[in-house]
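#help-structures
NK: newbie question, is this the right format to request a structure? protein is HAD-IA family hydrolase
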Amino acid sequence: MSFPIRAITLDLDDTLWPFPPIGARIERVLDDWFRERSPRTAERFPIHAMRELRERVFAENPHLVHDLSALRRLSIETALRESGGDVALADEGYQLFYAARNQVEFYPDALDALHRIAARVPVAALSNGNADLHTIGLASLFHSQIHAREHGAAKPEASIFHAACERLGVAPGEVLHVGDHPELDALGAMRAGLRACWLDRGDHAWPHGAPRADLEFTTLTALADWLDALPQGPDAEPNA
């Protein structure tokens, strides 16, 4: 299938890099930090208990579902408070968390394909997470970046897709959203009027009975190849 597109919006976590190794690193870094800076907290909240605390904090603060940075910081504050530690250490703990969060290991296909895609059309990062493209070193490849925290609502809300399209200056029907999650990425984009590419990294099954995405690939390389095969470039009218 071919169709004209003028821009791409791109998910980050589990699309350009897997998030589970990042999550494991964050847990180790914070545990080591608690042991050094607040031993009572480390004793009360070892890694498995800290994981449970984080889940509790997330569940108790649904109004912050779009702001993972605030939830992460609140988790550190809560651990310090409930263990009798110094809550003033939360800023320091959050900075360690954020540094670990932005140490990423790309999927083998991601970087080369991203360079190819960004050379063809403007690309906007569209993420519910809190990765920082400047810290990671990818900012030059992106036209812009929109976080759910910044926008005030998270995928699959239509408004965040529309905000990305407005920033790109391209109508939704001419934007292709690319991401790994069937609901948050592909179906959310389709409901918002964008074209959708499901990047199947093997972590999610497509919902039974849901309409299929416009494109389905297992690597970003395949998407770059698709773009290269468009007649006369991405703005051309399709011949199929």
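mod (FA): yep, format's fine, and the tokens are attached above. Residues 233-240 have pLDDT under 50 and may be disordered.
NK: thank you!
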